[in-house]
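Example record used in the benchmark description.
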Amino acid sequence: MRSGIYILIVIVLMSCGHAAPDDSSEEQSVVTPVTVTSAHTGPMADTIEMNATSTFLQKSIVKASANGYLTTVNAVVGKTAGNGEVLFVLKTKEAQSIGNTINSLDSTFKFSGLITIRAARTGHITEVNHQVGDYVQDGEQLAVINDVNSFVFVLNLPYELRPYVLGKKEVQLKLPDGQKLAGTITAVTAIVDSATQTQNVYIKVPADQLPVNLVAKVTIVKTAKTNAVFLPRQAVLANETQTEFWVMKVTGDTAAVKVPVKKGLETNGQVEIISPTFSGADQFVLTGNYGLADTATIKIVKQ
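Model output (structure tokens):
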């Protein structure tokens, strides 16, 4: 019995002689792999993109100049008619009834009674109302020609965006095929649509072979800066309410510190940094920054 108690006392004393391992000494700092980027300086612009539709502002109506029958019709829908080009030939009602009788009495008279009707201006024929053999009356519409000189893109501008357009002359248009055109604002109508509260803006383009009802994207510059300092949007973090913004700035290649920033323009995936002032030599965490604590230990895995 005594020997058992003695053995138990020895075991207790031996266990007290060895200190428990210190867990804190085994803890190692967590290293987060990240990629970094740097600040860039260059032009930035805040833009608005809206649709504009091509159309002709002026139309020329080709009308019959007398009562008679159409003997020739050269007008074809979709064809471009030149200024002074013969579109219709009309034979008067009188010539149709007595013309041959007069010529048979005197062959030198050469009475025909034919009247040529020409295009008053160069344009695209969009409508033809009569064909060969039709009887038409004086003043009746024969065709409609769109004046090529009146070709414009019409932009339906919301009234609240007027300050960004008024006073400007040049805008850029992008066609569905990717072609870009420099447009000139020629007029702003004095009428606002009561339902949509939009105002028509006419934009002239140098191209003259574009179809009507073509929809183009119009880029209007709201604000432009020539020497803005900006970072990729991914490098700028924010709180849940989007009221505070910060970046994780790299220090010594192994640590990242939280730096509050004030941002400005945002465009094309870039964010302008108004303050504080950064240089091109500064580096910022690009990926791996989400949830990263202030003064966190990092490892740059990709430059």
